[in-house]
Amino acid sequence: MSPKHQTCVVAAAIVDRLDRPARLLAARRTAPPALAGQWELPGGKTEPGEAPADALLRELREELGVRVRLGAQITGPLDGHWPLASALTLRLWWAEIVDGEPMPLQDHDQIRWLEAGRWLDVAWIPADRTAVSEMVRRAGGP
Ligand code: 9L3
Ligand code: MG
Q1: What's the 109 CA to ligand 1 centre distance in angstroms?
Q2: What ligand has the least distance to the C-alpha of 32?
Q3: Using CA positions, which residue lies closest to atom 8 of ligand 1?
Q4: 44 by DSSP, 3-state: which?
Q5: What is the dihedral of CA 52, 57, 63, 66, to 10 degrees?
Q6: Closest ligand 1 atom to the C-alpha of 35?
Q7: From CA 138, how far away is CA 141, in angstroms rounded?
Q8: How confident is the model at residue 141, as a pLDDT?
Q9: CB distance 102 to 64 below 8 Å
Q10: Quick one: pLDDT at residue 140?
């Protein structure tokens, strides 16, 4: 299957403010068993025919009950995507909440705002940890 037809997983690094991020939102998964208890940047799979950014807005509405504004994409090493443990790849965007208070409505049992300097303090899913480490590294760079 060409990448064009592959299911894409999309997720958001929701921060308190896009122009000067300090706090980052982490969400703890309840399923599947292999990932339950691990923390992620919230998001999910695109549906057939759905644009990635639209899928992300839908997922964040469903999972957390918030409406967000997307910022820049956070590019990973695979054509801009981040590797996942499965055959899937992950696309990430910065995001800022414009409406609603985030709540774990489905797929998560806890959410947590991580303060500046503490973005690696939770047990991230390995793929997400790689991305968050790189985000921290880039923020500290020029
Ligand atoms: N996944 C990894 N990191 C993330 C997200 C949102 C998803 N930040 C992985 C976990 C699942 C797959 O992608 O194996 C599909 O995610 P979902 O649709 O179950 O949220
Ligand atoms: Mg999800």
Answers
A1: 15
A2: 1
A3: 41
A4: strand
A5: 160
A6: 10
A7: 5
A8: 55
A9: yes
A10: 77
Residue nearest ligand 1's atom 15 by CA? 44
As given in the structure block, the two tokens for residue 119 are: 């973005």
Please tell me the distance between residue 59's alpha carbon and the centre of ligand 2 in angstroms: 7
87 burial via Cβ count (<10 Å: 0-12, 13-18, 19+): exposed
Beta bridge partners, 108, equal 29
Q: How far is the CA of 142 from the centre of ligand 2 (A)?
A: 33
- Looking at residue 1, its pLDDT comes to 44
Ligand nearest to the CA of 42: 1
Q: Which of 60, 58, 94 is nearest to 75 (CA)?
A: 94
Per-residue pLDDT of the chain (142 residues; tens, 9 = 90+): 445 556 789 999 999 999 999 999 999 999 999 999 999 999 999 999 999 999 999 999 999 999 999 999 999 999 999 999 888 999 999 999 999 999 999 999 999 999 999 999 999 999 999 999 999 999 975 4
